[in-house]
Structure formats: structure tokens, C-alpha cells
Amino acid sequence: MDSLPPPPPAIERPAQPSLLVSARRNAAQNAEDAPVFYVDATDGDDRRSGRGPKEAWKSLEKVNATAFPPGSRVLFERGENWRGSLLASSSGTTDRPITYGAYGKGDAPVIDARGSSVAVSLNGRTNVAFDGLTITGAADTGLLLGPRARNVSVTNVTVAGNGGSGIVVQGTSDKLRIDGSAITGNGAYGIVHYAADNTDQVITRNTIADNGWRKDGGVYSGWNGRILTGEIAHNRVFNNGVNGGEGRSHGLYHDQGQAGSRLKIHDNLIHDNPRGAGILAKSSTEIYRNVIFRNADAGLSLGQNRGIDVTYRVYENEFYDNNGGVLQHQKGNGSITLELRDNLFHRNGKRAAIIIADSIDKAVTGNRVSNDARTEAKTETRTGTTANQPLANQPSANQPSGGPVQEASGMRPESVR
After folding, report:
1. Which InterPro entries match (predicted)?
2. Can you give the pLDDT at residue 31?
């Protein structure tokens, strides 16, 4: 898109504290005795020691073949470009991770796969950090974190222009941080978790945009996966699914099959995803203080939970210019419990602001609904029902366009995959 207007000032976000304070403190404490290795694509030489800028290695092959002790930092010179794949060769420890980072001045160092399947791979290692790199050019995956990403951090990294997904979390992950990065312009998912029961997953302060352009019919969302514990917060998620095929592509997609999930999605800007919902949640999710606007489908779609009992807590969000605000659809065999309170809805297309398609356990209260672009119309609600009562100067509930709440047990809106 040529330009994107700023979101309405309905939600004031608190300052975001650093997620890596303790890790950086530990790194500083160990800096004196942590070995540092340098890599220079232009003036390096693999026959050297690698232990200083003037002793820098040259190739990825040398880095991939070296066993590093815990706490090592492997630094690539800024402004340089390497062709091929970077494969983590060693595991660190909890307080002494192996770090692949950058040194010098200029643009971030580039790892360009040049058509290889993967640009950068965790390669089965644990306690590894990737910081300040650009990862591109893979036929499939930009950054492959697996087969298990345990105590892994990805900070200030750009993962862009890969033919498949930007970041793939392969296998069950524990203690993963993806922070302050740009995951953009990848053919499939921006970020995807392929396994269930991922714990302590933190995805924060990233730009996740322009992914999902492949035309093979996949549901290539900005993020897709199943998280047991963690948060997706303070991200900007937009334009995923641009130029893609017939499949749906959502901003964030919390997939089905995650029993007992306590994922929190909060304080994100999620907008202009052209082939799906802002958020699609099939597993239990707490969703709050997001601004969700101009998505092709509903701002938030809930349901399709199959045989798992799920609970949704949805509060203090703002929805506007989507094709419906909140849509609960196609309940599975498991139960659904929905708390929907204190949200702001205005001008959400041809659908009602709130549609609940099945008989579920619900508490809908304190939401404000308006048909106008910027008018906030206060409504009264009855806890345990979906019968929001509009004010006298507001549209009636049976108005087909923009009515505050529509309850239609047994209704089947179009399938959302």
C-alpha cells in the first residue's frame, strides 16, 4: 500500500520494557571471558584465527564447521553479503548462549541463501541467539528454528524475500523470543509454529507484513500456530496474503488443537490483511487492547474448536472498517465460553458488529457500537446474553448492516479456514 494512516487514538499503550534485560546483563558479566569470532566476506581469510577484525574468517563454510564454546559470539561485518546457508554448529548454555551477530558500521550483514532451501538454520542446537542479521533468498525457509527451539532469541533481525515462510518453528519449542524484527515479503507464513504445546513463546515489537504471496492456495497468515503459554504483543501485522491465491490469509491465526492454551494477544496493530480476518482464534486465547481495522473478513473470528473446550476473553479492543467486528462461527464438539466486554466497534461493513452463531456460554457487556466512522455509541448489555440494546438514535438490532449484535443459533457464516 502507498500509505497507511495512523490508527485512531483510542488506546494509549504503555512503554514496552525490554524483554532481554536479564540475558543482556548476563552477557555483559561474561563478556571478558567470552570468545569473539569475526567474519569478513571481502577481506577475511579462513586460514586465520578469526579472533579479531584483522584476523577475520571469510566464509560461511568455516563458521558452519567450527565448534564454539558456550558464550561465543560470531560476528559478521556490517555492509557485507554472504551467499549460502548459515548452520548453527554449537549449543550454548542458559546463561551463556552462542550469539550470531554483527560488528562494524553500515547495513546489517546479509545471509543470502541464493536459492538454497534454508538461509539460516538452528540445526538442532539450543541456547542460541540471532541478532542484527538480514536473512533472505531461501527457496523455502528463511530462518529454521528446529527441530526444537529451546532458549532461542531472534532480535533486530530482518527475514525477508524468502520463497516459503520467514521463520519456521519446527517441533515443540520452549523459551523462544522473537523481538524487534521485521518479517516481511515471504511467500508463505511470516512466522509459523508447526507443533503444539509450545511454552514461553514471546513475539513482540515486530513488523509482520506482506507475507503470503504464494498462489498455491495455502492459508498463509502473518503468524500461524499453536502456543500453550506466551504472548504476541506490540506488533504491527498488515497486508499478509497480498497477491496470494484463493486460500485465506489472516493477520494472526491461533490454530485448533491446543488444549489448555493461555496465549495472550494484546496491544497489536492488525490491519489491511486483504484475504482474511485480523485474528482467527480456534484455541483458547486472551485478546485485549488491540486495534484491528480494514481486514477483508471479520476483525476477530472465533470457533471451529473441534473436540476441545475453549475459552475466549476479548476486551478493550477497537474494531473498525472490517467485514464484521467479532464473529463466532461453526462451533466444534467442545464447548465455547466467551467473555466479550468493553470493546469499541464502529463501521464494520455489511455484518453486525457482533455475531454469535451458536448457543454458547457467553457474557457480552459494556461494548460500544456505532455505524459511523468515528462516532462511539454507548450501548447497554445484559450479561449472559447477546442482546445489546442500542440507544434511541442508533440503528436497530435487526438492521442488516452494522446492527450492534446479531445472535443466530445454528447460523453458518461462510467458512473461515
Report:
1. Beta_helix, PbH1, Pectin_lyas_fold, Pectin_lyase_fold/virulence
2. 52
Strands 141-145 and 174-179: unpaired
Report how far apart, in Å, the C-alpha atoms of 81 and of each of 31, 223, 237, 243, 263 are: 27, 28, 28, 29, 37
CA distance 326 to 407: 12
Under 8 Å between Cβ of 254 and 226 = yes
Pick the CATH number of 187-407 from 2.160.20, 3.30.390, 2.60.40, 2.60.510: 2.160.20
Residue tagged 498462489 (cell numbers): 215
Alpha helices in 252-302 (DSSP H): none
Nearest Cα neighbor of 34 from 100, 102, 96, 125 is 96
**How many residues belong to the chain?**
417
> Which residue's C-alpha cell is 453486525?
352
Extract the runs of DSSP E, i.e. beta strands, from 240-352. Answer: 252-254, 262-266, 269-271, 279-281, 285-288, 291-293, 300-303, 310-315, 318-320, 326-329, 336-341, 344-346
Q: Report how far apart the first and last C-alpha atoms of the chain are (Å, whole number).
A: 25
Phi and psi torsions of 24, nearest 5°:
-70, -35
DSSP 249: B
pLDDT at 244: 73
**Residue 356 pLDDT > 60, yes or no?**
yes
Mean pLDDT score across all residues of the chain: 85
How far is CA 410 from its chain centroid? 32
- Count the neighbouring beta carbons within 10 Å of the beta carbon of residue 349: 19
Q: Of 239, 183, 241, whose CA–CA distance to 208 is shortest?
A: 183
Task: Show the cell assigned to 412.
Answer: 453458518
pLDDT tens per residue, range 63-97:
999 999 999 999 999 999 999 999 999 999 999 99
Q: What is the per-residue pLDDT across 90-133, written as a single tens digit (0 to 9) for each?
A: 999 999 999 999 999 999 999 999 999 999 999 999 999 999 99
The H-assigned helical ranges of 159-234 are: none
* Residue pair 183/161 in contact by the 8 Å Cβ criterion: no
Hey, where are the domains in the chain?
187-407
- CA dist., res. 374 & res. 185, Å (int): 32
Written as one letter, the residue type at 325 is: G
Q: Give the chain's radius of gyration (CA, Å).
A: 23
The predicted pLDDT at position 296 comes to 94
What is the C-alpha to C-alpha distance for residues 3 and 110, in angstroms, rounded to an integer? 27
Q: Where is 367: in which H helix or E strand?
A: none
Between 131 and 6, name the one with better pLDDT. 131
